[in-house]
User: Fold these one by one.
Assistant:
Number 1:
Amino acid sequence: MIRYVIRRLLWGVALLIIVAALTFVLFRVLPTGNPAVLRAGKDPQPRLIKEIEAVLGLNKPLIVQFWDYLKEVFLHFNLGYSYYSSESVRSLIAERLPETLSLTIGAAVLWLVGGLSVGIVSALRRHSFLDRATMGTSLVLISAPEFWLGLIFLYLFSSDIGRFKIFPGAGSYVGITSDPWKWFTSLIMPWVVLAAGSAAVYARLMRGSLSETMREDYIRTARAKGLPERQVVRQGVRAAINPLFTLFGLEVGVLLGGTVLVETVFNIPGIGRLAYSAITSSDFPIIQGTVLLAALFIILANIVVDVVYAYLDPRVRYS
Amino acid sequence: MTEPLLRVEDLRVEFAGEDGVVYAVDGVSYEVHGGRTLGIVGESGSGKTVSSLTTLGLTRRQGARISGRIMFEGKDLVALSEDELRRIRGNDIAMVFQDPLSSLHPLYKVGRQLTEAVRAHREVSKAKARERAVELLDLVGIPDPARRVDEYPHEFSGGMRQRVMIAMALANEPRLLIADEPTTALDVTVQAQILALMERLQRELGMAIVIITHDLGVIAEMADDIAVMYAGRIVETASAARVFAAPEHPYTWGLLKSIPRLDGPREADLVPIPGTPPSLVHPPSGCHFHPRCPYVQPEHTRIDPALEPVADDPGHHVACLLESDVRRRLWQQLGAGRTPAQALAAVSPGAPA
């Protein structure tokens, strides 16, 4: 198992280098704004541009630039500096990571609890009114884009522009350390919006998975033993939940890399917003940094999922 | 005879299917006496599994319409509430299923699956229940039970898994064990071990067994009494000795003639039963077996035979419209190695007796 994890981690590093190379090529080779020109201001002297290029290292051959970058990233965990503000990309990301973490983890808890419980009830009461109602709603939620749902929520419930002034609206986010209660209330709507689509997907998947496992022979055995129905259902849920776990791990990994739409709609200064503004201003080191971070989360999530899965299902063994 | 342990009276189980009502069990009656073994034999779809699942109330959830009575120790299981039935399941009546791999939960250790069977009916500590689990594994002949109790089902072989299933069924020393095709999914050598195990446990624990199978070999090995089912009904029932020595129903003849015998003439051909089991949605008119019966008479397609006592053979019942002496002469002919057509020709009116 340990050897398996080490092998997976080495592959992960290789994958990160490939991702770094791809973003490098995409943003440097393909036509884009020259960062030195963008930084030099209006009507710059060619000499000034040359100077800036030298400072940023843009005059070196591409392969040397890439090599320098990799050395910094993997040896010193240094992701470079913003072309514009000269701030360290690492600290820019570190500042915004708590926001994205709060958003993702809260939403994940919400969609897991919500989606699974709705799915379980639907599976056990198939074709009931409740089943039809929740499955119909879930279809709507799956189809609704996040930014649209976010705007609807703001329009309905935000304390500034809403029809029912219940929750703090866009831009109300504060860090958990400065005011935990305000942090919590300001995240309620973003959590719900971010969780809605996934909760709907999980509800439908859980319904399908559980109705299948409840027809398994071992469920019949559990009933034949005389177990109370609650325990029988628990055994069904235990088996039905495994396939959903893989999806859950990957989804959390993706979201940790930045939730651009929800962060934008609710004006939460997270990784997604950082990446978005970097892209619009060709701030290459930040783009590269956020892409690498997202890739890292996805790779780690994959490994965690595989390792935990071996514990969830004793039939799975890695060698 | 004393009061039977289990008495099933005119049991009917119907399911609403897509093509109409499925008459899975269509008026079945039988008795099981303490310490004895009843073998229920029939093809797939004859209702043998559904009737025993219904005994435990396990068809209720599938939306079955159930009528008739299932008397067990003075209680009608059909009329009991779900909770009352739950207390009987796995405690007084236990069941062993066909496929031991899919019948065990793949994600739980064997020990846990055994202890929960104990704890579903007894107030015992986890440690005590675990001791009992080890004891049960030992009882069914699993080597090194103290270690294997912590293993998962996929770490056991097929025969060992079925031993685990049997151990689980015996957890609370039930008075009745229903075994539904307990050896069908196993290798032949393992089959014999499992049957021997069940016989040994029956002797030691004194429980009654209902064994459901399509395999007459298993029946011959295990059963004291036999009920032959066809299309949701019992067509013949008697002691095992009588069914093998003097079967009365053409379907039973077909079953007996379609398995090879070591003590018969080497050149004797096996005679399969022609056709396929009938639809349970639109069962044949009259005698349900008439489309496949070589001895069918025109009126058999209209008249529905009842299960009636066989003359001069107490305890033997058959549902067949043929005359009693015609049946005996037919079986004599078949026993002499004739084909059904030859047998029919030989006993037809006008032919020499």
Note: Chain B has three domains: 34-63+81-92+176-187+195-321, 102-173, 323-353.
Number 2:
Amino acid sequence: MNNILIRGGRIFDPGNQLDLYGDLLMVNGFVSEISQHIEAKNAQIIPAEGCIVTAGFIDLHCHLREPGFEQKGTIASETKAALESGFTTICSMPNTDPTPDNASALQGLKEKILSDSHIRVLPVAATTQGRAGLILSEISELVAAGCVAFSDDGNPIESGLIMRRALETAGSLGIPIAEHSDDPSLSNNGVMNEGYISERLGLIGQPSAAETSAVARNIEICALTKAPLHLMHLTSARSLELVADAKAAGLPITCEVTPSHLYLTEDAVGGDNLVNEPAYDTAAKINPPLRSEADRQALLAGVNAGIIDAIATDHAPHASEEKLQEFSKAPFGISCLETALATITTLTNRGELDFEAALKALTAGPAAAFRLQEGLGKLTPNLSKDVTIFDANEQWIVDAHQFTSMGKNSPLHGYELTGRVKKVIYDGILSWSRESTT
Amino acid sequence: MPTQSKSDKSEPTKSEPAIWLRKDLLDTADLNLADFNLIFETTDAMIEVRERPIARTTTLRGTTLATLFYENSTRTRASFEIAGKALGADVVNLSASQSSVGKGESLIDTVRTLEAIGADILVLRHPLSGASTLASKYTNASVINAGDGMHAHPTQALLDLFTIKQHLGELSGRKIVIVGDILHSRVARSNIWALLTLGAQITLCGPATLLPKYFTQHKSDLQNVTVTTNLKTALSNADVVMTLRLQKERQRNSIIPSLSEYIRNYQINNDTIALAKSTAIVMHPGPVNAGFEISQEVAEGKQSVISAQVTNGVAIRMALLYLFATRTTDFPA
């Protein structure tokens, strides 16, 4: 039958506390057996010497742009990019047109996913109608139609009362609210982190207090409602302190960080030395913004300590001409699926990130945060069907023009990174292999 | 001495060859001491040209200067145009409101179009920070930043420094006080980087909401910069008092509680200017809101050099156009 034998890799499954050198057998599409040596007849052999064999990655935060913004990206193009980057499950953000704030819009999206997607796409529905923060979406209807979480991503829910109602309503169904924590009156239409570089460049900055004050409020409302709350793309040291305290108090809070914020700082926008550095780099314009080195260090420590549940990409492709504008006019967002693993493994190779913690944040961590079906994010026999095989030591130079994603904007363009996805088994089938690069 | 006129503007200094290699002028932070000296020496020569009975040359005949203004301007635009014509250049003036920008043409396309129709030097004024940096990456023409958002206004800073040197001589060790809305001011920023390179002591003074908050954290770059909300201590022993235009809409955004409160605490008038050295000069980049950031008496008083700034603005811009039009693009092997 349709059996696959992955031979000779380091099988690393943080969700099951499994780490051994050996073989993994898949039978009829499911992980069947993992041990030091397996003999199997009639199996497709996939050699994995020198590679890590782990569960297919899960991205809780991905912008596919379709429907409505197909010039930036499509379900087909962006899920292909995700597959080639080791992701087999992604959660799509609802800032599309139409926005999935009702069951029929979500159904339409799911049909398009079914026909076009290369991997499993689990839609996140809008928390409020039109993502306007005023009136709740039809939450139970959307849950019945198959959304895994709610978010108004890009827009914070400004009203504390609406936030409370959303948590109570979704929480009663066991579904988390994923919140972009920001106080817009404090972030003040800022286009980068507020600090020395924003002042030098003459750009309006968002102070990290705009994020942390909203994080503090959202944690208080979580304490009030006891409903699951997921804090998206945290960027500041202080936010992590607040989350650590909330978790210690037993609140149902989870959080994510992006590879961009783990790897880069506000220096990527302009640099201290404005003479020699490329200044006003719109490929480093993301929201929330890249922060200081002290913040970056705190985020790394947060992953290593398990405070951060998930590393989520916030992949946000844009058409090239949209980014070829004055910095303040260019949209927020960058293409980062295809550099996600490599930024993480480059950091683990440098000793800045703990390998097991980082891998967990790509697999079992996000699965638990969004309460996804059993088997996702793990290599559990008879449940799991997705396997990603990567070489943590392969060096390559990022060429954003070669991205599969329609978004070609990357602050890492030209960087040498270490770590590359080699093969991906999605839903029990070898779905993608990287051509030999040498 | 750089402030003295030299008959031969191209005579190199002894230590470094005085040649202009730069493609663009985006900010004063990009300039070193030799660059400043070369610009000021060239400006001295241009002042001589301006003092001739017929204040024109044909040095830049065949050079096309395009001014592209996305923001209104009186003195910057007029002085570039006058400077270009005084040197014999062809000058094309474009405003965003009268060009294809209104049809949605991007900055990059506009800049490429101007290059394609023959512009050698592009003078760009834009409301967004970094616009000149972006433009410079997409054209072979020289880009002179004539003000971009809150970022930089290098030609204003150069004429300010030239005016200070004209009146006080060397800048090294001089106490320069910049008063007002530092945070939103491209003039203040470009002056700060230029003054630091020339060795001045800088004090930035204004309401807390209009001061940079992070400059003092960068001691290595900015150890000669002091930031204070107290005008009295700021003005004490000052050699130069540079006032900045107060945007009246700042009040609407609660950045200042009221104009009268600003005037009470930060206006440069006969009472407050008395706190500075008696020899201190008073500057303003214009346009002046007389009665707000500066009183009419001081703006027109004996310590004011505001009209000298405007006059020097033409000579500075002539010098820059000359340097760009004749710049050396062949680097020594």
Note: Residues 272-276 of chain A have pLDDT under 50 and may be disordered.
